[in-house]
Design brief:
Number of strands: 0
Structural class: mainly alpha
Order of helices and strands: HHHHH
Length: about 150
């Protein structure tokens, strides 16, 4: 893969992932009570934990999206996105195993439901895209010796 193709792919991934996380964070910031209800539906955290996640997680998503979009502290933003997606994946898998019919609360607040399985597949795709972005950034920065 040529340097130009890798650079264009990295920029495209940054714009897509950054935009998605800014959008997702902004939706949740706009209505934290609905998002707290979505978090509570997973039946994993105590009540105060649901509200704590609803009050903080959207801001982390928004900040990570901005970091990806601007390229500033790209590796930190991408690493946090991967960690968040790992947590989401475990929570969604838990919901699927327990037979919960929940809305993941990722991109719609009080709208049509996203099934846990489709949300799980989407999160795995987002994680794969973010890992690819980290690999491309490592190559660009000379930290990756893969040819």
């Amino acid at each position: 893969m040529t340097k130009t193709v890798r650079s264009c792919l990295a920029i495209t991934l940054r714009m897509i992932l950054g935009g998605l996380f800014i959008y997702a964070g902004a939706l949740k910031i706009a209505d934290p009570v609905v998002f707290a209800g979505n978090v509570a539906a997973y039946a994993i955290l105590p009540t105060f934990g649901n509200y704590l996640v609803a009050a903080t997680l959207p801001w982390v998503e928004l900040i990570c999206g901005v970091l990806l979009l601007t390229g500033y502290r790209l590796r930190a933003g991408a690493t946090l996105i991967i960690l968040m997606n790992l947590v989401f994946t475990v929570a969604l898998a838990s919901a699927i195993i327990r037979g919960l019919e929940i809305d993941c609360g990722c991109f719609r607040q009080a709208g049509p439901k996203t099934t846990p399985m489709s949300a799980l597949l989407r999160d795995l795709g987002l994680m794969a895209g973010t890992l690819l972005l980290l690999w491309l950034d490592g190559w660009r920065s000379g930290r990756d010796n893969v040819s």
